[in-house]
Design brief:
21% of the residues lie in helices and 20% in strands. By secondary structure, it is α/β, with parallel strands linked by helices. Helix 10 crosses helix 11 and helix 13 runs parallel beside helix 14. The longest helix has 20 residues. The N and C termini lie far apart (82 Å).
Length: 693
């Protein structure tokens, strides 16, 4: 193609971004206060600038032009000119090449380089790429699994960490989208019982300058520069096509894809941060700014509800539209099944204070494309009034940190948690009330990417983040963890046996609780981060999955598979529908009974006893003349001694042991039926199912 043959027409203000058609490529960019917007075209081989085209038209706040002669794959960027008035929030600088906020692809990863950024930033900033939208290879599977909330088992993983060390994955696909969908990985997920894989951020991002300057990186990817482009780090060649391939193959296996998305801040940081995209187009609208005591905006002070330097103003109409366009694009074009929203309380600020009726919530609720998507909130940010657990709209699920802390504390042996533990077990209805929220609202977890792995949770009493080069001051200090006798790895058999049992207790509690279980990927493999509870900057063996398992690790994996299978085969263990809960029509539970060790029903004062660390719960399904109605009994013992439990006596029936966490090997668990008394091992769980005879 000769760039001398390009012709320019007015084009259209919509849609935003670069839209390729048979008539040419329409470029439209929101930039209301600029005096001039220049489209820059680059060579795909050298990134040499080969053409400059002033967009000829402006309609309202949008500059636009139709360029004939441009083909898919063309590299481009923008430069904007206007009054540079920092005191008014205007950051126009024609030396800064800008990424199209609506770019569907960028040509290479964004990496901070102070020398290349100074002056003309052309050689530091990745180039946007013209993509032919709406075109998918014929082999892409457009059918979505549509897993019901009651059956959903989430598995959180990092695209690279999941397969970087997987020997069965082709070397060039390790750490890539194509590695995630390798048959060996899919087989592992299916064997485990996973229904939905939740990927850490895959949208294009740039590691923070201060991390880069230390020789580290933002491995997790929570620092976006674009909300549409899959990051090139995870692709062999074409990140768009390879992402679609990944989704298609996972869907064919019945596995959903949930994306962890970051709409609360960007890599442009605060007033001293780089100009990469949004700042250079419409800084005053895209970000929130502090106000002084008289309500006057101070454009030198970005609101920082994220802790990352800035806060995106999703209450502004253009920004809200862009976020909604992004979500719809990932669902309709890229095929994903839902989203986990990082620091989602920021999205509910309208614009400064949180409201359940915020514009973002109202808009997403009525959107016909997103109506079936799973929406998972991290229900807080660090701003004023930012902790909002239980306050999101009813069509959202929420990450439940109270579940995490209660379950950790209970199994560590902390006193006075039994009542709260029982509440978490039955769906945290104190937070998500019956009748107004689904019992599946709570996304339960004992571990998450930001914190200890499950193995480290029972191996370390304190964080060990020295590798992050922040003098071990980063990461959460309140971990509710224990090492059971020695900090870190131990050669003592007794310590290791107790650690493994505690892992089984924690994992089984997660799986047996009402709500959606969230598994931190690699926990089933006994993955360790060597005590690092904030491995966001560790792109190495600290974060990557080790797929080579010893006998002890294989035993735990077998246990995890069995526990999930036990849950999936039971209606009551996946979805308790109680008589006094009218959120759904009908109910499947006749009784939920709580028992003391002596077999008597627990009374209110029993829950107040701080020394009470053992109890049982019975779920009796609705009979309806159905002899096969489920009936389960689960015994929890957090004491450091064995306890004799008197089981409920039911005529012509006995209790069959289905799971006992005292056994390190599943095949060592006895096939027994108990009718009256059971010796519950110290720090263990037993699960019984009622059988006739």
């Amino acid at each position: 193609m000769s760039f001398n043959d390009l012709s320019v027409d007015a084009g259209s203000a919509h849609p935003l971004g670069a839209t390729y058609t048979e008539q040419g490529c329409n470029f439209a960019i929101h930039c209301p206060d600029a005096d001039k917007v220049t489209l820059c075209l680059f060579s795909s081989e050298t990134e040499e600038q080969v053409a400059l085209i002033e967009l000829p038209s402006k309609t309202g706040k949008v500059w636009h032009g139709l360029i004939r002669g441009i083909q898919p794959g063309q590299l481009y960027g923008y430069r904007t000119e206007g009054k540079n008035l920092p005191e008014m929030g205007r950051m126009f600088d024609p030396d800064k090449l800008l990424i199209d906020p609506y770019a569907k692809r960028i040509n290479r990863p964004a990496v901070w380089n102070a020398r290349q950024y100074e002056g003309d930033s052309q050689f530091m900033v990745p180039k946007s790429v013209v993509v032919e939208s709406g075109v998918a290879p014929t082999w892409v599977n457009r059918t979505k699994p549509n897993v019901p909330l009651s059956n959903t088992v989430l598995y959180e993983a990092h695209v690279k960490g999941l397969t970087q060390l997987h020997q069965d994955v082709e070397e060039e696909h390790r750490g890539k989208f194509l590695g995630v969908c390798h048959p060996a990985v899919i087989r592992h997920l299916k064997d485990l019982g996973v229904t939905s894989i939740q990927l850490l951020p895959v949208m294009a991002f740039m590691p923070e300058p201060y991390i880069t300057d230390k020789g580290l990186t933002n491995y997790w990817g929570y620092n976006p520069i674009n909300f549409f482009s899959p990051d090139p780090r995870y692709a062999v060649n074409d990140p768009v096509e390879e992402f679609k391939t990944m989704v298609s193959r996972l869907h064919s296996a019945g596995i959903e894809v949930i994306l962890d998305v970051v709409f609360n801040h960007t890599a442009e940081s605060g007033v001293d941060g780089p100009i990469l995209s949004f700042k250079g187009f419409d800084n005053t609208s895209f970000y929130l700014f502090e106000r002084n005591e008289y309500g006057v905006i101070d454009y030198h002070r970005y609101v920082n509800n994220s802790g990352c330097g800035n806060s995106v103003n999703t209450a502004y109409p253009y920004v809200l539209k862009m976020v909604m366009d992004s979500l719809r694009y990932w669902v309709s074009e890229m095929g994903v099944d839902g989203f986990r929203f990082d620091l989602a309380a920021s999205l509910g600020r309208d614009p400064y204070e949180f409201s359940t009726l915020a514009g973002f919530f109202r808009t997403i609720r009525q959107d016909p494309v997103l109506i079936e998507s799973k929406l998972i909130a991290e229900p807080w940010d660090i701003g004023h009034g930012g902790y909002r657990l239980g306050q999101f709209p009813s069509n959202w699920q929420e990450c439940n940190d109270k579940f995490r802390d209660t379950v950790r504390g209970f199994w560590r042996g902390d006193k006075g948690l039994t009542g709260d533990f029982a509440t978490r077990l039955l769906g945290s209805r104190d937070l998500f009330p019956k009748g107004s929220r689904s019992i599946h609202t709570s996304v339960n977890n004992v571990t998450y990417h930001d914190g200890f792995t499950l193995h480290d949770l029972v191996s370390y009493s304190s964080r060990h983040n020295e590798a992050n080069l922040e003098n071990n001051n980063d990461g959460h200090g309140h971990n509710l963890s224990a090492n059971y006798g020695k900090e870190g790895p131990s050669n003592k058999i007794g310590i290791n046996l107790l650690r493994e049992k505690q892992k089984r207790n924690l994992f089984a509690t997660l799986i047996l609780s009402q709500g959606i279980p969230h598994i931190l990927g690699g926990d089933e493999l006994s993955r360790t981060q060597n005590g690092n509870n904030n491995a966001y900057c560790q792109d190495n063996e600290i974060s990557w999955f080790d797929w080579e398992l010893n006998e002890q690790q294989q035993d735990f994996l077998t246990f995890c598979r069995y526990a999930i299978k036990l849950r999936s085969e039971s209606e009551l263990l996946t979805h308790l529908s109680l008589q006094d809960d009218n959120y759904n029509k009908g109910h499947n539970v006749a009784k939920v009974r709580w028992y003391k060790q002596d077999g008597l029903r627990k009374k209110e004062q029993d829950w107040q006893d701080p020394e009470n660390q053992a109890f049982a719960v019975e779920y009796k399904g609705v009979d309806d003349n159905n002899a096969n109605a489920e009936n389960w009994l689960i015994i929890f013992n957090a004491f450091d001694q064995d306890v004799r439990f008197h089981l409920p006596e039911i005529p012509n029936s006995s209790w069959k042991l289905m799971l006992d966490t005292r056994y390190s090997k599943l095949h060592h668990q006895p096939d027994i039926i108990v009718s009256k008394v059971f010796l519950q091992a110290y720090r263990s769980i037993s699960v019984f199912k009622l059988v006739s005879g």
